[in-house]
Amino acid sequence: MADSEGSRADPHADNGSSNQPKKQAFIPLENNPEVMTALVRKLGLSSSLAFHDVYSIDEPSLLEFVPRPVHALLLVFPVTSTYEDSRRTEDGPSPEYSGSGSGEEVIWFRQTIRNACGMIGLLHSACNGGAREKIAPSTDLGTLIDNALPLDPDARARLIESSPSIARAHASAAAQGDTAAPAADDNVDLHFVAFVKSAENNLWELDGRRKGPLNRGKLEDEDDVLSEKALDMGVRRFLKREMEGEGNELRFSLVALAPSMD
Asked: Which of 45, 93, 221, 246 could form a disulfide with 40 if both were Cys (CB 3.0 to 4.6 A apart)?
């Protein structure tokens, strides 16, 4: 969670000093669907699901390459002043989210580990919506959900910080990919935000740097998160705001958690 509320450190920034212990940090994940798929399967997600590149959100012929239904979208983008200003403006009047328990519509994790936004985005994608039904209860993900559900967001963050299985899986995934991994203490500006559909047909934006989960509106029974309605309420809305603030230099990528084509 960022420091816009005055009390939390920015998980993208180097907050260590000579007077403070160095903040826990992960090696940043590469934005690579194969790496992401291997990571969530290692933690316990069924091999029936996989991450896929989404090459367009407007061209039907390219959207046809994505298997359906899509259970989650993971938007990857550079942190910009527009994102930061919008986050602070929307979060400002809102109370800190304190939800817990089985009655929660979505499970949300606050990001406190530096450069762990990729892992948090993957957890949000796999642990919510239809994907959660594809997690075996005896796996690392199944155990994480069971342990996290009764906890408030601060306790959930500490649970992730102290999880050896999360740390091991992340380190293994970070060592893979097509490019050399940066160091854990490098300043990396890429951020990951997940969009999922709940059992109540609401579209949720899940960002570990926000004050809590964000309900972006009601979907129909037949809509998945790559439907036109979901894209308008979620990814397109997000990107429109960024383009209005940053001009036409917006860089982003999008991956979908959907049925595997293996």
From this structure: 45
